[in-house]
Design goal:
single chain; 142 residues; mainly alpha
Length: 142
């Protein structure tokens, strides 16, 4: 398993085109579309999905468990948003980003925001709500 993951990382790094400006390195739709092989996209989404676990750990490491009300808020918040990604695969998320970024108007939207739109779409959120969220992210000048 470790060897497979290492190979995925190496292939992902090799697939990233040589980028020369900070704008080209911005993790948005232009960056996403410049990834040249699917394994690079899958590896990035695998990292995103695994990052949820790290986020969960960050929320718990060094936590004062004697404050039960605060602990409940932390757990409830994580569970509220974790449900969107709980049964989503790296390839499903990658396909969703391909579709999302195929619209040229979405290319400047940061990947973290685009992932949220895609996860909500996969979960069955009504299209009108997805469109409103997408418009919100398009209007953010980053």
């Amino acid at each position: 398993m470790k060897n497979t993951f290492a190979v995925m990382i190496v292939l992902a790094l090799l697939a990233v085109p040589s980028l020369s400006t900070a704008e080209e390195m911005e993790p948005n739709g232009n960056f996403w579309r410049d990834l040249e092989i699917p394994i690079a996209k899958y590896a990035m989404m695998f990292g995103f999905l695994e990052g949820r676990n790290l986020g969960y750990n960050f929320a718990h490491w060094g936590f004062d468990y004697t404050d039960e009300a605060c602990f409940k808020k932390v757990v409830d918040s994580f569970e509220e948003y974790n449900k969107y990604a709980a049964h989503v695969t790296s390839s499903q998320l990658s396909d969703g980003l391909d579709s999302f970024y195929s619209d040229y108007r979405n290319r400047k939207i940061r990947m973290t925001d685009a992932v949220w739109v895609v996860l909500k779409s996969i979960s069955g959120t009504p299209q009108a709500e997805i469109d409103k969220l997408t418009e919100k992210y398009r209007s953010i000048d980053k």
